[in-house]
TrEMBL record:
UniProt keyword terms in alphabetical order: Phosphoprotein
Annotated source species: Fluviispira sanaruensis
Lineage: Bacteria, Pseudomonadati, Bdellovibrionota, Oligoflexia, Silvanigrellales
Protein name: Response regulatory domain-containing protein
A GO molecular function held by the record: cyclic-di-GMP binding
Modified residues (4-aspartylphosphate): D51
One Pfam family named in its UniProt record: PilZ
Keyword flag Transmembrane helix: no
Listed PROSITE patterns: RESPONSE_REGULATORY (PS50110)
One GO-annotated biological process of the protein: phosphorelay signal transduction system
Length: 375
């Protein structure tokens, strides 16, 4: 496993390298983005831990270039370090592609566990992503490199990497530079530069003519504006989403995958053998998915480094009207926040779905049982 640390802080650099050498990583270090680029080209590290602001630039600009150069290959996992006065938030860092954000000073061992989480999740095919597509539309003014005036149109399919520009004529060429103004409201405006990443010159069913615009260097300033806008749109969609019939087996599998992304699977296991028969419930999938995922995380996290520890997930039919989801963790070792989580987040969701929750914690195991009405 190859690990690269990038920082001008020699003492911090030494501490990080010592910890990861002790953990049997192949360790490399750099004091600038220029040096880091040389190491990446030669050694292809799997993980980079770096200061957000370096002597020769912003890490995210470097990381975007690194991802573009990687093409079909997976870019290294990135974990960012910031000073206490930094305005960079975890939401923006993750939206920019980072795995985690640490504010100095921090515990080196905690950083190691975060790297282990990232490496396991990457190898298992899990990713952290906050820009799942939402129904977000904006007025758009765009000026092509070959034009003298702005074109007024609209934009859809907006993400943290760029946006779609609907055009009926004057379709630009690939890699052409553009100036743009995304106008969500009178106060929420993003103005900047980008390049044409792809074009669609012929309309299709459900797909308009236009082009995909990729944000140019300095993407972080766009993302800082987009995070609250996209999060608000996603929250609004979840809150107004209608109840639908969902396969409980599929829902549990999705939640287990999400929990594994958050938990180091180095020692703890999550076991689930789905029943042969299909079990369906009427629910708002994003909410139940969130409740299951957060619950498993808080149950398993304290025992994540205990040998032979495991969490079993069981689906049990009570009768024609009810089904139970039973989470059993051995050994017992629940988070201090489990009661608060249930009271503040899980219970309100279950109340909305006319479901109930029971818990039992003893010296042998921890058991949480959720009873849901069948469809």
């Amino acid at each position: 496993m190859k690990f690269l640390a990038v920082s001008q802080d020699k003492s911090l650099l030494k501490s990080m390298c010592a910890e990861f050498e002790h953990q049997k990583y192949a360790v490399f270090s750099a004091s600038s983005l220029k040096d880091a680029a040389e190491v990446c080209e030669k050694e292809k590290p799997e993980v980079i831990v770096a200061d957000h602001i370096q002597s020769d630039g912003n890490f995210f600009d470097f990381y975007d270039s690194l991802k573009m150069a990687a093409k079909a290959e997976a870019a290294p996992v990135a974990i960012l370090l910031v000073d206490p006065k930094s305005t960079l938030t975890p939401e923006v860092a993750i939206a920019m592609g980072a795995w985690a954000l640490y504010t100095k000073p921090f515990n080196i061992k905690s950083l190691y566990y975060s790297v282990e989480d990232a490496v396991f999740s990457r190898r298992a095919g899990y990713t952290k992503r906050l820009d799942e597509r939402v129904e977000l539309i904006s007025r758009l003014e765009i000026k092509l490199e070959t034009a003298s005036e702005y074109i007024s149109t609209f934009s859809t399919n907006i993400s943290f990497g760029g946006f779609f520009a609907a055009l009926t004529s004057n379709i630009p060429e690939l890699n052409e530079k553009v100036d743009f103004k995304l106008k969500f409201t009178n106060s929420d405006v993003i103005e900047g530069k980008g390049r044409v990443a792809w074009v669609r010159k012929t309309p299709k069913v459900g797909a308009q003519m236009g082009c995909g615009i990729q944000f140019s260097a300095g993407r972080e300033k766009y993302v800082k504006v987009l995070v609250p806008i996209i999060n608000e749109a996603r929250t609004r969609q979840i809150e107004t989403a209608s109840f639908q019939i969902e396969d409980l087996n599929d829902l549990l599998a999705l939640s287990i995958q999400a929990a594994k992304e958050k938990i180091s699977k180095k020692l703890s296991e999550i076991e689930y053998i789905p029943p042969t028969e299909k079990v369906t419930i009427m629910c708002r999938l994003p909410q139940i998915h969130s409740a299951f995922t957060e619950l498993m995380y808080e149950l398993i996290y304290p025992m994540r480094e205990i040998p032979n520890s495991k969490c079993t997930v069981e689906l049990k039919n009570l009768d024609e009207k009810s089904v139970q989801v039973i989470f059993t963790c051995i050994p017992s070792g629940t988070s201090l926040y489990i009661d608060q989580l249930i009271a503040e987040k899980v219970q309100p969701i279950l109340d909305l779905h006319k479901a109930s929750i029971e818990s039992e914690f003893n010296s042998i195991n921890s058991t949480v049982t959720i009873t849901l009405p069948k469809n």
